[in-house]
Amino acid sequence: MGVVIRTAGEDDRDLVVRLLDEAFQDDPVSSWVFPGEEYRRRTHHRLMAAFADAVFADGRIDLTEDGAACALWLPVPADEDAAAEDVPARIREAVDPANERVELIARLTDGIHPGGRAHEYLWMIGVLPGRQGEGLGTALIESVLDRCDREGLPAYLEASSARGKVLYERLGFEFTGRALDLPDGPRMWPMWREPQTR
After folding, report:
1. pTM of the prediction?
2. For residue 135, is it left (φ>0), alpha (ψ between -120 and 50) or beta?
């Protein structure tokens, strides 16, 4: 039996935030942004809420029917201009004003994000720790990649772990060749996928 996927609605917000918070507690990038386990437990959920709200406003969140996994997708137009408002600073102010890394991670990922072509951006994908390895993440990604292939759209993401990078390579993503090494922190791998014909 396949994985049942639906589009999350605003009434799923709390579920999505809890899921992302739990899924990313031990992620290398989350650990860098929020160093210290206790601090991360107290604060990390606020960043996940800000991300979820941004995607509810401008993109789409796919959710497995059982609530064990979700994927946050943003459509990026070819001619996207930087917004007049300073989004990274605004997020930092809302999430954790004393933590400059909240703002820095947004600025650094914005700096490596490819431009000039419309594409789907997989901002985040989270699977509950006890459910990883069951193919839920792959199912969530493949459902959008199938549409990208039909519509001739590329897709983009930043892998936050070597394990994730391998998974994305199996799905047709390729490392762009320019890694992002966070200051005194982990490496991220920007990855691009051209639409494929099957």
Report:
1. 0.92
2. left
